[in-house]
Structures are given as structure tokens and as C-alpha cells.
Amino acid sequence: IMDSARNAGATGGTVLRAKGTGTDKAKFFGVSISEEKEMVYIVCKRLERDAIMMAIMQNAGYNTDAHGIVFSLPEESVLGIKAFEE
User: Which pairing describes strands 14-19 and 36-41: parallel, antiparallel, or unpaired?
Assistant: First the structure.
């Protein structure tokens, strides 16, 4: 995922090992979520977002063996990080 993201313009990211606490067969938009997973957080400018997301989906998305999902949040919806200077 990070190789794909870097090739599309991401300068870095944070990879976390995560363990779900929901039901055994949790689903997110119809996709089964495994109990243990790796989550990747990438902060980027809005202009870079679509290319990075598309690269991740092409290489690790739902139609691949990884069955990954990707979503975006605007930085104004996240507490604890400083907004990018335009």
C-alpha cells in the first residue's frame, strides 16, 4: 500500500496493527472486516488525494487479494493535526 501511495505522490504514512472489537462477522459497506488488520494513515493535500486513493485501490483494493478499502476525511474533521497552509 505504501509503495503504491508513494508512487502516486504520498511522502509517507503511518502503519498500525489494529484489532477489531465488534462482532465476529463485522461488515463495512458489505465488506467483511477481519478481526486483526493493518491500517494505513496518510495525510496529504487534497490535490494529491484522488491519485493516491486510486493507486491504492488498483494495487490493494477490493478486487485484489488484499481486499482493502480506502476512505478520506478532510483535515478539518480531524482533531490534533494542524491544517495545511495553502
Answer: antiparallel
